[in-house]
Write a structure and sequence with these properties.
Alkaline Phosphatase, subunit A, 15% strand, transmembrane helix, Alkaline_phosphatase_AS
């Protein structure tokens, strides 16, 4: 395609987008945009009723004035740590390189890593950061309502100015007044500045770094040539001939960064209407404008060095205020690395595709633009440093287009660029590098080979597996009918990572506006009026100094995690961990106790929707968000047939990961992929003499609690009566799980054998199943014919079935372990179920209500947590796992209220544990994380999606919509019970001895070693015999030989199938021969 054809196509696209934006802006821009607009009446807030918390964020983050009108929020008013920052460190940097992956949420990062590096691989740039955190991002509409789904303009304005503003705004507040940005502050301090992007340089992210505009589409000086989103009376005051600051292109020239590189030539070819001196609200300007000439010609006249090709960029040797460099390499956005792929109705079940590189027509790569910018900006002889913003823009643009290949190629570009920046920073020693995103997007990694209500694409990854990616924020039919249809952003919190002086200040839970102050404070250019932190900084302030050389080097799990071909290798403990058994080694302090919290299915989207609803967009989850160390981890499982990765895990394989340090197949519990049992964390803790506990709101036989108390070929092997179990634990190969066939027994039996000091949850009906094989296990007698529960009582367990009975318990130990069973199945959810609608959730949002079926006899997770900690306290220490299980179960049901209620249960339990640790004074490591990501997405209000949506009223009194779009259909039977897990990496947070070892990029199996190393456990499991403690007293008792353990293959293993097939063939032959011989005998007899 020629440049002219591309321009024509882009003009058509821009016109279509402009029409959409004009409609949207009727809401966000209800008043005329004059130089001093009248104050806007605030929207009427909905009443906040029912269960759940109240807003608890920064007090000044309130856009409603006392007189009921909307006021402009000031810099730092919505930052979690005010203008002063976290103060984990007060180190200063000479240079800052801020790198933005537009639309790069957790799903996009993970999907790209899977395709490019492998599930067990590492990005050389993105995954190399030594400080990692999470931050919230949202905007505020012009009527004062919080908008839970931001656009790139409002989000970029957040980190460049420290304020919250409306979607579409570039560097202006809610009253449309300009706010000084980082570039302007840096230039006033005498620093050199640069702005690099693969988008049009006038696009939202690069524009917010240099300009101030009522709308992001005010690209050039000729109003009629701009998008309709910047035309008409509401935008007249933006243009210079009407007395405004002018178009974004003009302001780029007036701001005069030393280096500006990207696309967007088309707007620079618009003619200047107003001549005279340049305009800048915060900087002196020497620009002189000539009417009738283009912006580009005016730039040349004012000393800019203009370049158009990669070769010209390579030849540039200097840039400065006398001759700034302006590189414009495309009429519009620069060409993406990979040719587009398109998600379709049946893409998930189709043949896997491979992404194909396309001709970039001589345009420079992002890494080349960045390294050249650094080269031009860095002046070792000067006492002043530089500030550089770099953006990989089309991660977002290709996600809008449901183009998985395009998105992945732009993440790859970003990673290359990050590595180059880190290489410079490590050599320089005085440069802070930060990488993050502006908002999350629509991508979701779903179970492979599966179609859903969302459009899907299936890709063949470099490691030979296939990965299915879904786009469900737009109706399938709309995507099919309109090639330019655009998927939505979503409101999930984002990863932020840093390296260099000041990097520690991104660790933990912050807001997008906090990043402004992290950068400004590091560069000592923060002159904003002081606002103190709304969060106590003392808990976050530590002596931990990342990046100082004390971190162990990552292992190479790509070489040890997978079974390759028929070599017979099966990975075991530590083989898939990013830092092997030794861990990162950042904090060698030992803990007396460890409390591991699991929010089942609680990915970043679930955390964010819960926070938004319970405490507001700028609020904090008092338990989860208070843990001071944060990192991210991968969660893939293994394919039992091929030995490679399965990109979407289930709860069994994931729990096995942290419980044993071993990857297994989906459905496997406490075993390697070949079925061999592996010691779990409770068994290791008991071997060291620690007390142990296992607490859940699920059935205690469910995957997460089962993984620390059993070893099973399938997660559904709940009880000892084979034919009463789920069909997934019946049939071919599963008999060997059961004791009458020589196995370790059902999950219920093994939980009793494990003999944790306290076990609390549901699942009574499975404990009522009858034991099929009697005998002695580790000195405890099992009686055939009695129920599991009767056997538990006879073995000394104290059984309680209500909150009052639990409260009355005074001790729990190996002589009298406590077994609390409070429901036949899962414990009832705290909040009543919501049913999402297929049509867009319009009209007034709803508030959640308490579940009337949950009575006082069922203890809350916080109550169970506090009781467990009291009972486990002892001189030697303890390990306890505590799970809020029904975040996941509600997500499967598309039940947002149920989901949020269970997230609150987890947060309350974490608060209870933190209070217990503080009061007891015991050195205790607390970790909280999830087992897998899930389906829910925060999407725009009143917009149709491919799935089903519910609109809620949050603690802010504003509306938030949540979408569920991974089921096979939107019919009740599927949509209200079969939403699926997704494959995104997950947040992990910790405090206490060893907590720093979760910071950075790790794998789920690494958590096993964070815990084991903190407790000084023998991770090799020496002395733990998983079969030899059984003494048979009846026929049919288990075979405990070593050979029996080693040959316990998965029910679907190739070798098993082969022998079954051979056996079947032999049986057929035998029957045929027998029939033939019998027939001959009968013939002979008749003869």
């Amino acid at each position: 395609m020629t440049a002219k054809e591309r321009r024509t196509q882009k003009q058509a696209t821009r016109a279509a987008v402009g029409a959409l934006l004009t409609t949207a802006l009727a809401v966000v821009l209800p008043v005329s945009a004059g130089a001093d607009p009248e104050r806007v009446p605030a929207a009427e807030k909905a009443p906040v009723t029912g269960p759940g918390g109240q807003y608890n964020g920064p007090e000044k983050c309130n856009p409603i004035a006392d007189d009921g009108t909307v006021r402009a929020l000031k810099p730092g008013e919505c930052a979690q740590f005010g203008t002063v920052g976290q103060k984990r460190t007060e180190d200063h940097a000479r240079n800052v390189i801020l790198i933005i992956g537009d639309g790069m949420g957790q799903q996009e990062i993970t999907a790209a890593r899977n395709y490019l590096k492998g599930a067990a691989g590492r990005f050389e740039g993105l995954d190399a950061f030594t400080s990692t955190g999470a931050y919230t991002h949202h905007s505020v509409d012009r009527d004062g309502s919080f908008n839970y789904v931001t656009d790139s303009a409002a989000s970029a304005t957040s980190w460049t100015t420290g304020i919250k503003t409306y979607n579409g705004a570039i560097g202006v507040d809610l009253e449309q007044k300009p706010v000084e940005n980082l570039l302007e502050k840096a230039k006033k301090a005498g620093m050199r500045t640069g702005n690099v992007s693969t988008s049009e340089i006038e696009d939202a992210t690069p524009a917010a770094f240099v300009a101030h505009a009522f709308n992001r589409k005010c690209y050039g000086p000729q109003e009629e040539k701009n998008s309709k989103a910047c035309q008409g009376e509401a935008f007249a005051a933006q243009y210079r001939h009407n007395g405004g600051l002018g178009s974004i292109a003009e302001q780029i020239i007036d701001a005069r960064p030393d280096v500006t590189l990207g696309g967007g030539l088309e707007a620079f070819e618009q003619e200047v209407i107003h001549e005279g001196e340049g305009k800048s609200p915060f900087l002196p300007t020497t620009t002189t404008w000539t009417a009738g000439k283009t912006v580009l010609d005016n730039a040349k006249d004012n000393g800019f060095t203009v370049i158009r090709t990669a070769a010209e960029l390579d030849s540039v040797t200097a840039a400065g205020q006398d001759a700034p460099v302006l590189g414009l390499f495309d009429d519009g956005n620069m060409i993406t690395r990979y040719a587009p792929s398109k998600a379709t109705t049946d893409g998930g079940s189709g043949r896997p595709l491979e992404c194909e590189a396309q001709d970039t027509e001589g345009q420079p790569e992002l890494v080349d633009m960045t390294t050249k910018a650094i080269e031009l900006l860095d002046d070792p002889g000067s006492d002043k440093g530089f500030l550089l913003q770099v953006e990989s823009a089309s991660i977002d643009k290709r996600s809008h287009a449901a183009d998985a290949c395009g998105m992945i190629g732009e993440v790859e570009r970003l990673d290359e660029t990050v590595k180059a920046a880190l290489d410079f920073a490590k050599k320089d020693g005085n440069t802070l590098v930060v990488v993050t995103a502006d908002h999350a997007h629509s991508t979701e990694i779903i179970y492979d080979g599966q179609d859903s209500v969302a459009a899907t694409t299936r890709l063949r990854t470099g490691e030979g597996s296939s990965q299915t990616i879904a786009y469900g924020s737009l109706p399938m039919q709309e995507l099919a009918d309109n090639p330019k249809a655009s998927q939505q952003h979503n409101g999930s919190q984002l990863r932020v990572a840093a390296y260099g002086p000041g990097e520690e200040n991104v660790i933990g839970q912050t807001d997008q506006t906090d990043l402004f102050f992290t950068v400004a404070n590091a560069l000592q250019i923060n002159d904003v009026t002081t606002i103190e932190a709304s969060v106590p900084t003392g808990k976050s302030a530590t002596t931990y100094k990342p990046g100082t050389g004390d971190r162990n080097e990552p292992a190479d799990p790509l070489a040890t995690c997978y079974r390759v071909g028929d070599n017979g290798f099966v990975s075991g403990p530590g083989d898939c961990a990013q830092f092997a058994k030794e861990g990162q080694g950042l904090d060698d302090e030992k803990a007396k106790n460890v409390i591991l919290f699991i929010g089942d299915g609680m990915g970043d989207s679930e955390i964010t929707s819960a926070r938004d609803y319970l405490h507001g967009a700028n609020g904090r989850l008092p338990g989860i968000d208070a843990l001071p160390y944060t990192g991210y981890y991968t969660t893939f499982a293994l394919d039992p047939e091929l030995g490679g990765p399965t990109y979407v895990t289930d709860s069994a394989a994931s729990a096995t990961g942290w419980a044993t340090g071993t990857k297994t197949y989906n459905g496997g519990l406490g075993i390697r992929v070949d079925g061999t049992p592996v010691p779990n964390i409770i068994e290791l803790a008991k071997a060291r003499g620690l007390k142990t506990g296992n607490v859940t709101t699920a059935e205690i036989q469910d995957a997460t609690p089962a993984a620390v108390g059993s070893h099973a070929l399938n997660r559904k092997c709940y009880g000892p009566e084979y034919d009463k179990n789920n069909k997934t634990c019946q049939g071919e190969g599963f008999e060997k799980q059961f004791r009458e066939y020589g196995g370790l027994g059902s999950i219920s039996e093994q939980l009793i054998d494990t003999r944790a000091d306290i076990t609390l949850g549901g699942g009574a009906k499975y404990l009522e199943q009858t034991v099929q094989a009697g005998g002695d296990w580790d000195g405890h007698t099992w009686t055939k014919g009695d129920s599991v529960l009767e056997n538990a009582r006879s073995q000394g367990f104290t059984v309680v079935t209500s909150a009052d009975e639990l409260d009355a318990v005074k001790e729990a130990d190996q002589d009298a372990p406590v077994l609390g069973i409070f429901a036949e199945g899962n414990l009832p959810r705290a909040w009543e179920r919501t049913i999402p609608t297929v049509e867009p959730a319009v009209g007034q949002g709803v508030r959640c209500t308490e579940n009337p079926e949950r009575g006082d006899e069922v203890p809350t997770l916080a109550q169970m947590t506090t009781k467990a900690l009291d009972l486990l306290r002892n001189d030697n220490g303890f390990l306890v796992q505590i799970e809020s299980a029904s975040v996941d179960k509600a997500d499967h049901d598309a039940d947002i209220c149920g989901q949020i209620g269970e997230a609150q249960q987890l947060d309350d339990a974490i608060q209870a544990a933190s209070d217990w640790v503080r009061e007891s004074g015991e050195p205790t490591l607390i970790i909280t994380t999830a087992d897998h990501a899930h389906t829910s997405q925060i999407t725009a209000n009143d917009r149709a999606t491919a799935g089903r949506t519910t609109k809620l009223v949050t603690a802010d009194g504003d509306e938030m919509t949540v979408n569920y779009a991974t089921a096979k259909s939107n019919d009740d039977e599927e949509a209200l019970g079969s939403q699926t897990h997704t494959g995104a990496q997950l947040r992990v947070a910790a405090e206490g001895p060893g907590a720093a070892n979760v910071v950075g990029q790790i794998d789920q199996t690494d958590i096993h070693y964070v815990i084991a190393n903190a407790l000084d456990l023998d991770t090799d499991g020496a002395g733990i015999n998983l079969a030899g403690r059984w003494g048979a007293t009846e026929t049919g008792a288990p075979d405990t030989s070593t050979e029996a353990q080693e040959t316990t293959g998965t029910p679907t293993s190739s070798s098993t199938k082969m022998w079954i097939a051979l056996g079947f063939l032999a049986l057929v032959i035998l029957i045929a021969v027998t029939a033939f011989v019998t027939g001959r005998r009968r013939t002979n007899a008749r003869g």
